[in-house]
Amino acid sequence: MLTAEEIKTYIESSLPCEHVLVEGDDGVHFHALIVSSEFNGKNVVQQHQLVYKSLGDRMKQEIHALSMKTLTPEQWTAASQ
Residue 78 burial by CB count (10 A; 0-12/13-18/19+): exposed, middle or buried? Predict the structure, then answer.
């Protein structure tokens, strides 16, 4: 069973991120906030595909559900103000 911290580590090891927060304590359902400059110029579907790619086969086997919010650093800064 995966932990939120493990998912955070998987994302950060494959995708350059400025900020990652993953929550979920049942081992299969998770919520993530991911901020990455890799999202610049990409639509939401393309951004989510980058995250799914960073998790690889875990999305098919170990993670039942991952809801996520993806932001560029500029969007993150604007949302924080």
Answer: exposed
Residues in the chain: 81
With a CB cutoff of 8 Å and minimum separation 6, the contacts of 16 are 36, 37, 38
SS3 content of the chain, % helix, strand, coil (to 5): 45, 25, 30
Tens of pLDDT along 47-74? 999 999 999 888 888 888 899 999 999 9
pTM above 0.70, yes or no: yes
